[in-house]
Specification:
The chain is built from eleven helices and six strands. The model has no long low-confidence stretch (mean pLDDT 95). The protein binds magnesium ion.
Length: 243
């Protein structure tokens, strides 16, 4: 299964080898079990403004910037875009609801995988659409010694956000490597799309309620059912890459 996925990737992108130097991690739904809270917060916030955004649909938008999600929903529900001020208001409401929910736990298996990656000399990189101000503190609290500020891409760094390849290309740039020197770990369809569009081998972990096809149809090169499973199979994956 790994061999075939790697061969397909190399052939499609025209590389001879994956020469792994860094692993680019999405955050929500990958490192933290936080997507349930985001989906709930989106649903409730939009309802306050008289618009319908189901929790399941929120998973389909995962990875977009807040403004982009709000624009898509406003256009559909009302037929016109929100102006900048209203976008800010809606996003603030969503953030307030999110912050009022119980704090999300780290994803099971995530820290074991991160330590393994770091100890083997690979560079962990965070690539998230999140704009939480306390993000680095929170990461350091739950995953001490793993992430460094200079190897993080957040909402403050990007213009377009996922599914545009921009955030992942920026992640590569921060390390100074080519697409075939990294892999992406993503849980969201639009995040997978961004990783694939950046030319990077993209591993999907399906930690939410969407069918596997939602991730595979965006071009995921491999799919795992959990971070625990990815963590358990990581060494084998690396062995096959290095063959
Ligand atoms: Mg995610």
């Amino acid at each position: 299964m790994f061999e075939q996925a790697i061969q397909n990737y190399l052939k499609e992108k025209g590389y001879n080898k994956i020469n792994l130097k860094a692993v680019l991690f999405d955050m929500d739904g990958v490192l933290f079990d936080s997507m349930k809270n985001h989906a709930k917060a989106w649903n409730k916030a939009m309802a306050i403004y008289g618009m319908n955004l189901s929790e399941e649909e929120a998973y389909m938008h995962e990875g977009r910037t807040g403004a982009s999600t709000i624009n898509i929903v406003c256009m559909r529900e009302r037929g016109y875009n929100a102006d900048e001020e209203e976008i800010k208001k809606i996003y603030q409401t969503k953030s307030d609801i999110f912050n009022s929910l119980p704090k999300a736990e780290p994803m099971k298996g995530a820290y074991t995988l991160l330590r393994n990656i770091k100890e083997s000399g690979l560079q962990p990189v965070l690539v998230t659409g999140s704009g939480q101000l306390s993000l680095l503190d929170n990461l350091n609290h739950h995953f001490p010694g793993i992430f460094q500020k200079e190897f993080m891409v957040t909402a403050f760094d990007v213009k377009y956000g996922k599914p545009n390849p921009e955030p992942y290309l920026m992640g590569l740039k921060k390390v100074g490597i080519a697409p075939n020197e990294a892999v992406v770990v993503e849980n969201a369809p639009l995040g997978v799309k961004a990783g694939v569009a950046a030319g990077i081998f993209t591993i999907a972990v399906n930690t939410g309620p969407l069918p596997d096809s939602a991730l595979l149809n965006e071009g995921a090169n491999l799919l795992f059912r959990s971070m625990q499973e990815l963590s358990e199979k990581w060494d084998l994956f690396r062995e096959i890459i290095n063959k």
